[in-house]
Amino acid sequence: MDIAKVPTVIAINEKLFTEKEVSVSVLRLDLIHPFICGNKWFKLKYNIEDFFRLKKKYFVTFGGAYSNHIRATAAAGQEFGIKTIGIIRGEELNENSNTTLKFAAQSGMKLFFASRDEYRQMRDSGLLIDRIFSELRTTNTDLFMVPEGGSNALAIMGCAEIVKYIPEEFEFICCACGTGATLAGISTKLNDNQKAIGISILQGEDFLEKAILNMNSGRKNFQLIHGYSFGGYAKSTAALDSFCETFFQNHQFKIEPVYTGKLFYALNELIKKDFFIKNSKVIVVHTGGVFE
Ligand SMILES: *Cc1c(COP(=O)(O)O)cnc(C)c1O
Predict the structure, then answer these.
(1) Ligand 1, atom 4, residue with closest C-alpha
(2) What is the pLDDT of residues 62-96, one digit of tens each?
(3) Does the global pTM surpass 0.70?
(4) How much of the chain exceeds pLDDT 90, in percent?
(5) What pLDDT, in 10s, does the model give residues 201-218?
(6) Are the beta carbons of 173 and 167 closer than 8 angstroms?
(7) Neighbours of 160 (CB within 10 A)
(8) Which amino acids bring their CB within 6 angstroms of ligand 1?
(9) Which residues, including other chains, have CB under 8 Å from residue 169's CB and lie 6 or more apart?
(10) How would you class 103 by CB atoms within 10 Å of its CB: exposed for 0-12, middle for 13-18, buried for 19 or more?
(11) Is the N or C terminus of the chain more exposed, i.e. has fewer CB atoms within 10 Å?
(12) In ligand 1, which atom is closest to the CA atom of 288?
């Protein structure tokens, strides 16, 4: 089972990079599929294989109203003919509340809107509540459950494959971190001369380092950078918005303020502060997330 397109590596030039003698390239995971967002494909891949192997009936997962994982799961469900179910946090929402939910519903995902309490209960127990079971007329054995954000062991195994597309000459592999599963997967396959740099897009996430060490069997070949959350998940500022806009004008591909905008913004700051020594070869993983 595979997707059509292999991601490409492109070099990007900016005056700052030349001045500091740091070479920067981008791994365009955003180009692998029009709807299944970059890293989310790698997270889903082995989950989908297991779903078929175990002959389950429904592929069930969890997410907030703006979740790229929900969007990607719905798109993958359509692509592979899988019945997907999305448990969405927020009983006040519906299928028309935003473009993510509209897209998911139009791709055939069945959405259930749960109160904060119900959501937490289901997410933490991995079991659906009775009202959903009776509506689906199904039992637990029919369900293939994937956690919020899709970050399980199969996802980490899938993200490890991202490294296949990174030429060995790159010493620094940078990506945006939410749960950290993408970075954890990447870190399991790096050579000794390579290091992963994760930009945390969440605020004050002290747990992130521990979470990654849990997911990557304790490998210490990564470094997390904090201070570029711009106020927290999905928060932005005028400076970040205009950075994304200017970036698009200069490089003709899009980044967005939730993940990849913060990533490139932080990268620029790190290069300014001489975080990378001269002649370093840096590759940035574009994990997607641009839909409009
Ligand atoms: C989900 C997502 C991430 C974060 O991935 P994690 O594995 O949770 O760290 C990064 N970039 C984009 C575009 C995403 O959608």
Answers:
(1) 178
(2) 999 999 999 999 999 999 999 999 999 999 999 99
(3) yes
(4) 89
(5) 998 778 999 999 999 999
(6) no
(7) 19
(8) 37, 39-40, 68, 149, 151, 176-182, 259-260, 287-289
(9) 281
(10) middle
(11) C
(12) 13
